[in-house]
């Protein structure tokens, strides 16, 4: 685009007027149209795969629920192990008393 534009005219420090050639205006319009087409195509593609996005979201939610359930079960197992250890200690204490009392 070298040599295609004219110099800007500085009327004051706050206002710059840039004169564009007709060819540059057409190129800008073409780029804008291409970008708009790209965006439209991307949106159509995304909407075309909406069912996949919905399924992925459902799977993420299911995964989260399963992780929460897994954590709850892990805590329950830890509590049961703790209770079992306490019961074993109590049994050992009771065995000691019955053996010593005989």
Report the count of strand segments: 2
What is the average per-residue confidence, as pLDDT, rounded to a whole number? Answer: 82
Helix content: over 70%
Class by SSE composition = mainly alpha
Order of helices and strands: EEHH
Number of domains: 2
Rg over CA atoms: 38 Å
Stretches where pLDDT falls below 50 for ≥5 residues? none
Termini Cα gap:
108 Å
Which percent range describes the beta-strand content?
Answer: 5-15%
Strand order of the largest sheet: 1-2
Oligomer status: single chain
Largest sheet: 2 strands, antiparallel
Number of helices: 2
Shape: rod-shaped
List the defining traits of the structure above.
102 residues, mainly alpha, 2 domains, two-stranded antiparallel ribbon, 2 helices, rod-shaped
């Amino acid at each position: 685009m070298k040599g295609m534009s004219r110099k800007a005219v500085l009327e004051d420090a706050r206002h710059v007027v840039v004169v564009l050639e007709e060819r540059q205006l057409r190129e800008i319009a073409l780029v804008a149209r291409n970008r708009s087409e790209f965006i439209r195509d991307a949106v159509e593609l995304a909407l075309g795969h909406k069912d996949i996005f919905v399924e992925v979201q459902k799977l993420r939610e299911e995964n989260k629920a399963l992780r929460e359930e897994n954590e709850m079960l892990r805590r329950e197992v830890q509590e049961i192990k703790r209770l079992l250890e306490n019961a074993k200690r109590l049994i050992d204490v009771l065995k000691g008393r019955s053996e010593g009392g005989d």
